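Below is how a single chain appears once it has passed through the pipeline. First comes the sequence as given, then the structure the pipeline wrote out for it. We keep one example in the README because the format questions we get most often are answered faster by looking than by reading.
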Amino acid sequence: MSRAPSITRRTAIALAGLCVVLPIAGCGVGMGSAKVLGAGDPIKVGVIPVADFAPVYIAQEEGYFKDEGLNVQTQVMQNAAAIAPSVINGQLQFGTAAITPFLAAVQKGLPLKAVANGSSIAANPALDPSALVVAKGSTIKGPRDLEGHTVAVNALGSIVHVVAAAAIKKDGGDPSKVTFVAMPFPDMIPALHRGAIDAASLVEPFQVKAVATGARVIAHPYSASLTPDGTFTVIFTAGPFAEKNPETVKKFQRAMDRASLLAASHPEKVGQVLAKYGKLPPEVFAKMRVPMYTDKMSIPAIENTAKLMQELGFLPGPVDVKGAVWP
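Resulting structure:
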């Protein structure tokens, strides 16, 4: 099998659509979001209906946004690539993202600000919702054995791509000798079993579904590669919007923190919103490993992820993480 293109090149291609506005970064990028909202004005949040962002839906369902006097409207997004540009141009006021594409966008100059924790990494691999899986009968024993093979990720430059590369390197392999291909999570399991790919880097509920079909887990990359108990998804806004509406952002933060604490203490609430917004069957949720929820955003964990991305070639330079977090 031919050698894969460098991680840096693949990531640059993956981020091209997200960063098309960057040539004018010094000329007012994000100013479309710089509008002052009045009392009762709709606040739109772009969110993907997965467990990582369940607190957004919980805050809506439990009335936490209303308690803060906010008229929040959740907008289900199936493709994360559209969220950041929509926040920057003011179509959305808040968005959701895994920390890796968020950091890549910030490093490129997009004025994004993380305002709340989405989900965090469980230190115990037994609670890790991520997995590198191979087909039943595969001769691949560990991440290092993926050299010369094809691994599916949901998007090039995504968090499952970064952690898969990290797991391979940590196990003594060379991730640049692995061919990473982008593929929707639902397509990975059939592709794995028909031999179109050699491994898949996925998250819940697809880990449960893959194991049920006979797939074998060779690593849990989140807990192996990222900071234990550290942030790996965030809720973010545009800097110009936050500067014009600081009280609105504070209220939004309070509602999100309440929802995260409720998700942590009552996981059944997570199952309820995933069934309603993500159409996830309750019996599948019952077997899932859900993320860890907390009201604490870990700047050191985000900084460590940025360093990991640099080491692996996913980022061309450092990121001002503290500057990318709204107070």
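The mean pLDDT is 89.

See the next section for the split statistics.
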